[in-house]
Amino acid sequence: MSPRKRRQRIRVLQYGVLVAAIVAAAAIADWGQIVDVFFNVDAARQTVADGLGSALLHTVTYSLGGFVLAFIFGTILGLMRLSEVGPYRWIARAYVEFFRGLPTLIVFIALSLMPLAFPGMSIPFDPYGTVWLALGIVGAAYVAETVRAGVQAVPRGQVEAARSLGMSSAAATRKVVLPQAFRIMIPPLTNELIILVKDSSLVFAIGLALSDFELTTFGKSEANALANVTPLVVAGLAYLVITLPLSILVQRMEASTAKGR
């Protein structure tokens, strides 16, 4: 038997095992119970009526605000990582390594407890400010690496050509390097936005009023009130309404970039 036919038979066998497992699971499942617990129509309608739209809006607001801060801080940190000044590189690298290794939940909790350590301290626009700052602090560490990689992907000849025209190093970076780098960075930055949308579910750690609930906290509250898992399923579908279009956008941008090469 040739290697090609052997691979084909192995693949057919794998597909057969998968289909058999699906059929067996479907046969033993209690579909009435599954539908009642996870896909209860009445519970879904109640979830929507109780404020799903408001929770969805809060999730988008938290995520976009955090992304804006992450983009600003991350761009600065990314340029610091590439700086010829040693202390700038050390500070930026220490920040990136620290917050990339720290769970986002801990940052949320730390920010919520800051007033205990510094009496009289308050974060503007709370709770939005606290959420934006927590997501921005963590997201900046990842955006910084994206910016660094994007800038390094720009051919060195572009900078040399700009300098030969009399541009200063700062002007060449601002007018030549960054515009090209940002086109390269758009797909990974969009992926970072998707991550922040999901990380916004951690705002439960700071304690929110009912009117400020995002999707996960809202879904959990509704699930407890209705004694049914359907609200969490509805909240999950609401997340997909946000993230799936972004994922499709990333795929199209990556395909477009590949064709351009």
TrEMBL record:
Instruction: Provide the membrane topology annotation.
Output: Multi-pass membrane protein
Record's signal peptide? none
List the CDD domains.
TM_PBP2
Known Gene3D superfamilies for this protein?
MetI-like (1.10.3720.10)
Q: What main location does UniProt list?
A: membrane
Residues spanning the membrane = 12-35, 55-77, 98-118, 231-250
Q: Name one GO molecular function term.
A: transmembrane transporter activity
Which Pfam families does the UniProt record give?
BPD_transp_1 (PF00528)
Keyword match Membrane: yes
Q: Which GO terms describe its biological process?
A: amino acid transport
Does the entry feature the keyword Nucleotide-binding, yes or no? no
ABC transmembrane type-1 domain location, by residue? 56-250
Concerning its family, UniProt says: Belongs to the binding-protein-dependent transport system permease family.
* Protein name, as recorded: Amino acid ABC transporter membrane protein, PAAT family
